[in-house]
Specification:
Blueprint lengths: L2 E4 L5 E5 L8 E2 L5 H35 L10 H14 L16 E3 L4 E3 L4
Antiparallel strand pairs: 1-2, 1-3, 4-5
């Protein structure tokens, strides 16, 4: 019994219990479009939750290693490889190191090298 809102191409954007605004077309609960839309929403939600949880696990492993509770060598080789690949992927790139906002206070330009002078 959902009312549906569609985009310009006719794809479902949202489901509503009552007719409102652009959601005036009614489809049966078991309509193939409604079921596909619900499945996609469910999948998208779990994919984001999984991605967030994976990041928590990575951070937890980093904390355990930093506190010497576990060693990286305690993990199976496949797990170490996956963690290393994700770390490499998250590592800042050369573009991230560009100084687009100018020098911060305490940074002295020495020509080719920069030196940090605290509280300058």
């Amino acid at each position: 019994m959902p009312y549906v809102r569609r985009d310009a191409q006719g794809s479902l954007l949202s489901l509503h219990r009552q007719a409102e605004g652009g959601a005036t077309e009614w489809l049966a609960d078991n309509d193939a479009q409604v079921l596909a839309f619900m499945a996609q929403q469910h999948t998208d939600g779990f994919q984001q939750l999984d991605a967030d949880f994976i990041r928590v696990l990575e951070d937890l492993i980093d904390v355990l290693v930093d506190k010497h509770v576990i060693n990286m060598t305690d993990l199976p080789p496949a797990a170490r490889d996956k963690l290393a690949a994700r770390r490499d992927h998250r590592r800042p790139t050369a573009l991230a190191e560009l100084n687009l906002l100018g020098d911060a206070p305490g940074v002295v330009d020495t020509g080719t090298l920069r030196a940090f002078t605290p509280f300058a």
